[in-house]
Amino acid sequence: MTAAWRAAGLSYNRYLAITARTVRRCLKEDKRIAAERRGEMELRFAKWESGKQGDVKDLAKANAAAMAEHGS
């Protein structure tokens, strides 16, 4: 049996991001603010092709753009 997130066309990382954001939004104000700070990402990544590094991108911005693109 395929996992529901896979059947919906999501990667496991995207599934985790969506569920974490949902849980944070359900918390009371003081706990929500603290949890959102812990959820901030300051990671960067680059796609490698043919042994050459591509443009370095901010992970949080790339995730936000992908979420907007998929309507989540």
UniProtKB/TrEMBL annotation:
It holds the Pfam family ATP-synt_Eps. It comes from the Eukaryota. One of its GO terms (cellular component) is proton-transporting ATP synthase complex. Gene3D superfamilies: ATP synthase, F1 complex, epsilon subunit superfamily, mitochondrial. GO terms for biological process: proton motive force-driven mitochondrial ATP synthesis. InterPro entries: ATP_synth_F1_esu_mt, ATP_synth_F1_esu_sf_mt. Signal peptide: none annotated. GO terms for molecular function: proton-transporting ATP synthase activity, rotational mechanism. Belongs to the eukaryotic ATPase epsilon family. This is ATP synthase subunit epsilon. It comes from Hirsutella minnesotensis 3608. The lineage of its organism: Eukaryota, Fungi, Dikarya, Ascomycota, Pezizomycotina.
